[in-house]
Amino acid sequence: MNPLDELTLTGLRVFAHHGVFDHERRDGQPFVIDVTLHLPLAVAGATDELARTVHYGVLAEEIVAAVERDPVDLIETVAERVVDVVLAHESVVGVRVTVHKPEAPITVPFADVSVSITRWLPGRLPAAAFSAREVATLRHWDQSAVTRAVVALGANLGDREATLRTAVAELDGEPGVRVVAASPIVQTPALKLEGVDEEAPAYLNAVIAVDTVLGPRALLSVLQRVETRHGRTREVRWGDRTLDLDLLAYGSAAVLDQDLVVPHPRAHERAFVLDPWVRMDAGAVLPGHGRVADLLADVVAATGERVDEFPAAPLVPVPEALR
Ligand code: A4P
Ligand code: MG
Q: Is 251 left (phi over 0), alpha (psi -120 to 50) or beta?
C-alpha cells in the first residue's frame, strides 16, 4: 500500500567533481538529478498554504548545495546524500532519487549513465502497511509503523519439532518480520472435522508474536510461503499436515476477505491455540472475543480438549534477564 502523493523535480543540473579519476576530481563535470518525493499533499491542496508542502525552490537549492559539496567516488554516494537532504523535510515519507552522469569517462559512445535509489521512512505514516517490495527499501524500522501480530503453528507429520523450529527461524529471517516471543511447544490430539481423532498423529502446537511492517495480506503470503517450503499440501480440510501457520491477530485490525479473515475465525474455540497463547502472554486479548485466558477456560469446560506439555527447548532464545 502506498497511499501517498508525489512531488517531482527533474533535470536539476549541478557542476561537481565526483569520480574516481584524477581528471574528474580536477576538471569536474555536470551531474543531473531527478527526485520524486512521496508525501501527503491533500492538506496543502485544500488550504493553499506553502507551509503544508515542500517548497520545491528551496529543495532544489538544498540538493544543488549537497551535490556540489566535497567530491566522492561514486554516484551511489551522491544519491544517498540527496536522499538525506530530501528526508530532512519531515512531511516526506519516501523518496526516489536518480543521479545521471552524462559525461562520465566511458570509452564507447553512450547516452547517459545513472543510478536510482528509493528509500522510505515508514514511521512517518500513521499505521503504515508496506508491501514486501517496499519493505526491501526501508532504511530502518520505526516503531510507529510496526504492528504486533500473533501466529499459530501446528504440525502433525514429519519431524514436528524440527519443522516448528525452522519455521520460526525462517519467519524471523523474512524482510519486514521479527519474531519477538514464542510460547512453549505443546502436544494436542488431532482435531478433525468429525471431532478429536486419537488415532491420527498428535500435533505439536505453538504460538508466536511477531512485529511486522507488512500489511496483513503480505504477512499471510509470507506464512504460506514458509508452509509450502515445508512440504505443506492441501488435500483434506483439517487433514494431517507438515506445517500449518495461521494468522490469529494483526494488531486490533479486523480483515474480512475471501482468503483472509482476521482475527482467525476459529481461534477462540480451540484449546490448541488458546493454551499456548496464554502460556506466551498471560494477559493476551483476542480482538473481538476478549481475554484469551477466559476463552480457554470456556473451551476446556465445554469440550475437555486436552493440551499436554511437550518437553523441548524454547523456540526463541530466552533473554538473559529472564533465565
Ligand atoms: N485463511 C483465511 N484466514 C486466514 C488466517 N487468519 N490465517 C485462508 C491463515 N489462513 C487464513 O487454510 C485455508 C485458507 O484459509 C487459506 O488458503 C487462507 O487463504 P489452509 O491452511 O489452507 O487449510 P486448513 O488449515 O486445513 O483449513 P483451516 O480451516 O484454516 O484449518 P485450521 O483452522 O487452520 O485448522 N488439531 C490440532 N490438535 N492442532 C492443530 O493445529 N489444525 C487444524 C487446521 C485442524 N486440527 C488441528 C490443528
Ligand atoms: Mg490453516
A: left
Please state, in angstroms and as integers, the Cα–Cα distance from residue 213 to each residue in 58, 120, 285, 310, following that order.
Answer: 32, 12, 21, 32
244 C-alpha to ligand 2 centroid (Å): 5
Could you tell me if the CB of 246 is within 6 A of ligand 1?
yes
pLDDT digits 0-9 by tens, 206-260: 999 999 988 888 899 999 999 999 987 776 777 778 999 999 999 988 888 889 9
The CATH number fitting domain 5-139, selected from 3.30.1130.10, 3.40.50.12230, 3.40.50.150, 2.30.130.40: 3.30.1130.10
CATH domain 145-322 topology: Alpha-Beta Plaits (3.30.70)
Dist CA 181 CA 249 (whole Å): 14
pLDDT tens string 86-106: 999 988 888 999 999 999 999
Residue ranges of domains in the chain: 5-139, 145-322
Catalytic residue among 18, 81, 96, 101: 101
Cα–ligand 2 centroid distance for 245 (angstroms): 6
Q: Which of 31, 35, 38 is nearest to 8 (CA)?
A: 35
Cell of 17: 567533481
Is any atom of ligand 1 closer than 6 Å to the C-beta of 264? yes
101 carries an active-site annotation: yes
Q: Is 272 in the pocket of ligand 1 (CB under 6 A)?
A: yes
Least confident span in 39-43, 226-230, 300-304: 39-43
Model confidence, pTM: 0.69
Is the CB of 188 within 6 Å of ligand 1?
yes
